């Protein structure tokens, strides 16, 4: 594991207390709950497609928070980060090639 | 050439070979990179490597899981693009209260799981770790209970694809076909997670030294977070479409 810059690693090097452990993670939970509330509210906005985009955008933001802090990718080694990204990379190829086909058929119908 | 000359040359040659050998030894040490240069190592490094190997292994598995779910999500995306109105009508029929409650439950379970994993990693706070693991498993069970109530309501509302299906638009059956497949697959994943976390709780409760610095806690935690993230994406796919219409 490489040393991460920023507050969490300096906190960890000090004498750790359960309180510090909770404080380091609770703000992420609070942010996740706020994002969940926002996505429920946004689903009822009368803008159609924008609502959908906001819904998936919020899912992406939640994923970033969970992956970086809860799954500790922020402090992970380069190897682990590459592996984690590779899943997304191949999924992106899967989506791009398939949707290129689906969307071009829809456009030419 | 005299004999004495030859002996001097021979000795020079030997010294040369020895010098080159010594040099290459030094070279080997310079060229060997981590972790190969320090195979005989202290216990702290050994613990770090044990953890590094476990983390790497579970991330390879999680990347393949991400691709498995990505294929399902892509199927949904293609079907939704082709049948936008039917998907909006079908999305309105799912119960957003149950869906939102379950999202909150899973996100909270990820908090307790993360705290358990970080406490175990430092080898500190055995009681905190145990308490957080037990709470995480309980949240997982709560999710399944809520899902059970939701399934009962879905069946009562005849939202199972087939001859008896409630909605008039045919493509709405594609939505609910996806709904049933993907929520059941997710529930199976979550059940495995509950099993893993329960096992850690019981073993950690019986054996005082089991949880401290045990990479199994982090591996189970990373799996748990991935199952949570799958649900984070299922939530806008299944519960949010068609609410504003």
What does this structure look like?
The complex is a heterodimer of chains A (109) and B (245). Chain A has helices at residues 7-13, 18-43, 49-70, 78-107. Residues 1-13 of chain A have low confidence and may be disordered. Helices cover 78% and strands 0% of the residues of chain A. Chain A is an all-alpha fold and 109 residues long. The longest helix of chain A has 30 residues, at 78-107. Chain A is built from 4 helices and no strands. Chain A is flat, with a radius of gyration of 19 Å. Chain A has 2 domains: 1-76; 77-109. Chain B has 245 residues and is mainly alpha-helical. Chain B has 2 domains: 1-31; 45-238, Cytochrome c oxidase, subunit III, four-helix bundle (Four Helix Bundle (Hemerythrin (Met), subunit A)). Helix content of chain B is 80%, strand content 0%. Chain B is elongated. Chains A and B meet through helix 2, helix 3 and helix 4 of A and helix 2, helix 4 and helix 7 of B.
